[in-house]
Design a protein that fits this description.
By secondary structure, the protein is an alpha+beta fold. The protein folds into two domains: about 1-60, Single Sheet (N-terminal domain of TfIIb); about 60-90. It is built from two helices and four strands, in the order αββββα. It has helices at about 5-10, 65-90; strands at about 20-25, 35-40, 40-45, 55-60. Strand 2 and strand 3 form a beta hairpin. The longest helix has 25 residues, at about 65-90. The protein is elongated and about 85 Å long. The mean pLDDT is about 80. Bound molecules: zinc ion (ZN). Zinc ion binds next to loops. Zinc ion binds near residues 34, 49 and 52.
């Protein structure tokens, strides 16, 4: 299989950072035979279907800008994680009122 064609398809799939998925193969169209990873800017793919030779790797050299974005995305995911953990926590209200003391001075 033409490697440039594979790269074109993979690039067209807009693989999100830190992805590790198993999907239908975009080359042989078999179900769930295609693994796709984007780990630390390296995109790797492989099809497990015996008759399909889709396999490859794009090692993208990260530009300073990309590196910055990469670090920011790590930072963001950490912030989001903390945010979602905060949701579980009970926030102490600023003041308490008794349900039995309504309109009682
Ligand atoms: Zn395939």
């Amino acid at each position: 299989m033409d490697y440039n064609y594979q790269m074109k398809i993979i690039n067209g799939m807009a693989v999100q950072p830190n992805t590790d998925v198993r999907v239908d193969c975009p080359f042989c169209f078999h179900k769930n035979t295609f693994t796709l990873k984007n780990i630390d800017g390296k995109i790797m793919w492989n099809c497990f279907y015996a008759m399909c030779d889709a396999k490859g790797k794009i090692e993208k050299e990260m530009s300073p800008e990309q590196l910055k974005n990469f670090l920011n995305s790590k930072e963001l995911s950490l912030q989001n994680k903390m945010k979602s953990e905060n949701k579980i926590k009970w926030n102490v209200p600023e003041y308490f009122t008794s349900v039995h003391s309504i309109n009682v001075p």
